[in-house]
Amino acid sequence: MVSELAGTLTTQKMDTEAMKKEFFAPSAAPVPVKFGTSGHRGSLGAGFCALHARAIAQAVARMHKEQHITGPVLVGGDTRLMSADTARLCAEVLAGNGLPVILPDMPLPTPVFSFEIINGRASASLNGTASHNPPQDMGLKYNPSNGGPADASITSQIEKYANEYMAHPEQIQSLPLEEARKQGWVRSADLITPYITALAKFIDFKAIAASPLKFAVHPLGGSSLAFYKAIKEKYALKNVDIVSNVQDPTFYFIPLDHDGKIRMDPSSKYPMSPLIKLVQDGTYDFAGASDPDADRFGCATKHGGLIPPNHALCVMADYLYRRHKVRDAYSIGRTLGTTSLLDRIAAAHKLRLDEVNVGFKYFVEGIVKRKYVLAGEESAGMSVSGWTPEKDGIFAVCLLMEMMAVEGDIADSYNRLTAQFGTPYYTRVDVPTDEETKKRVKSLKAADFENLHQVAGEKVTRVRDTDGIKIYLQSSWFLVRPSGTENILKIYAETFISPHHLDRLIEQAKRLLA
Asked: How far is CA 350 from the centre of its chain?
């Protein structure tokens, strides 16, 4: 077992004491609460502070009382600097409002919050995380009774109430944690055993254990560590090594990303470089990782190096269907910016294809109603019907290990699919812009392109305006979406023609919408 990966240390460390001070006493006025696709996020201080956590918890308590939601709220977070404090503050506010709370004494992955809700042990959850964002960021997300990310009708209500409490913090009710435990409002629970036991309904751990292949798993310093350890022990996976046990809120051991920031992104070649090396030098056949809150996955293999999320999703969807892993499901779901190779796979298996706006919340109803063989997004998120309506990176890594054990290298499986359905060339480009341009692009409608008949030598077949502008061509597509947090336009493009055609698509998109 490799306890530490040499050569991954960075010199960029976070001043933890300064960040803690910013959390409890921001040096600037806190920004209003604003829920995006995964809750309210911001840099520690004005972007996210103790008042944000307490105000959001009070808003949730008020909403639960109004809607007569009486079950316990699961409260926790990942391994970030202020996740435990955020969870404690939320628990104290909920208890102060007479709501029962489950507060684990360990970091908790995002999919486990969802798992506990859909299995009836919690009515909702508050989760302190900022996913794979840099370590100075923090966030808080709410999952309602369906277990998935909250939709706009819920988050808008939380925003409204929370901002009232931001303006009037004296109205927030709270009960100190020790007293809340004594009064029975707050309790702990075993959240590992139920989750890893249920995984065996989908994952063939015996096949993994019997494989001659060697597997590496890296939690990237996140909340999945205890869960991977428990999975390894329960299912006697002697050929699976957890190659790092380090949990440090500065995430100093993660190689810097493309922009010089620490970003715990399991689909980026920079943070994943130590794992890519492990497969390239033959130490392991497979190396998998999940981000700090374990809702995203990444993997590298001996034959393929770092596997792009789109490639992994295609191989997983095909495997899940052929192996009858998801009973009675009749559709594959993907977001607007995810590869259309999934469309061809769905058609070959006589499955429906659902294309939804960006955000996993758009899959929740379909997962709950057992519609999806796989629901996935290009940013390395996936789940299946009968499992969690949240993205689950632990599930994905375990499934990928099973696929390696049963059918060989993921890269080889992907090549078999492209030999059958064609090779897609895919990219995403971020183009700097300004607020005025972002607003203009956001306001565009399909009707604005009714005179657009050809792009990059291909006929325009359709235009969609539900989430940015997506132009569909005969063998290609591109999507332009304004970022909600930065002054950039995100351009996604894919073609089955050639890399040169992909470049033409990007240039055409810039000219049309810049």
From this structure: 28
Task: Return the closest-CA partner of residue 60 out of 86, 105, 99, 23.
Answer: 99
pTM over 0.85: yes
Range of 459's domain?
A: 425-513
Instruction: Answer yes or no: 131 catalytic.
Output: yes
Q: What are phi and psi of 354, to 5 degrees?
A: -105, 120
Q: What is the average per-residue pLDDT within 118-142?
A: 96
What string of H, E and C letters represents the secondary structure of 284-308? CCEEEEECCCCCCEEEEECCCEECC
Query: Cα(462)–Cα(464) distance, rounded to whole angstroms?
Result: 7
| CATH number, position 216 | 3.40.120.10
How many other β-carbons are positioned within 10 Å of the β-carbon of residue 131? 26
pLDDT tens for residues 253-282? 999 998 899 999 999 999 999 999 999 999
User: Is 289 a member of any domain?
Assistant: yes
Is residue 6 in some structural domain? no
Helix (H, G, I), strand (E, B) or coil at 349: coil
Given the residues 38, 83, 114, 131, select the one marked as catalytic: 131
